[in-house]
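Methods — Computational structure assignment.
A single polypeptide chain was analysed. Its primary sequence is given first, followed by the predicted tertiary structure written as structure tokens.
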Amino acid sequence: MAIGAGFDEVGRVGPTFVGTVYPFQLDHMGHVNIQFYAGLFDQASWGFFAWMGLDAARIAAEQVGMAALVQENRFLSELFPGASLEAWTHVLATSPKTVTYRHDLFRRGSGESSQVVATSQLTAVCLDLERRRARPLPEDIRARLDEAVRRRRTPAE
């Protein structure tokens, strides 16, 4: 499946990131350092932005971008070198200028593909890159995000 190809059974977009843990990402305790979790979640955000219609070409052509306002990470399981990872993204809410979303980072393979190892919830604002000011989300992007909100449900539903 391609990055950001579709929705899963609970309405997450994804996968928005696929990757592997490398030895250089470890801290002195032998597990992934939080600076690298931030990088994994950043890559998932870029996959998510591309899915919603904001890829590098559009950013350059229209001078529209996104900037994080708030981020909260939760670490649920240690990660070690060689772990294969995949992120899927819930769209939680939208407003005229912002989107709130959560990345769920999963360990892939070895029968653990449903184990969420970390989450990151973010609120991002749409920016006019020339004026460096908040601006409304483009209509096509807002429509796609609103559709994702409508699809979102908890696993028990």
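Note: The CA atoms of residues 14 and 61 lie 25 Å apart.
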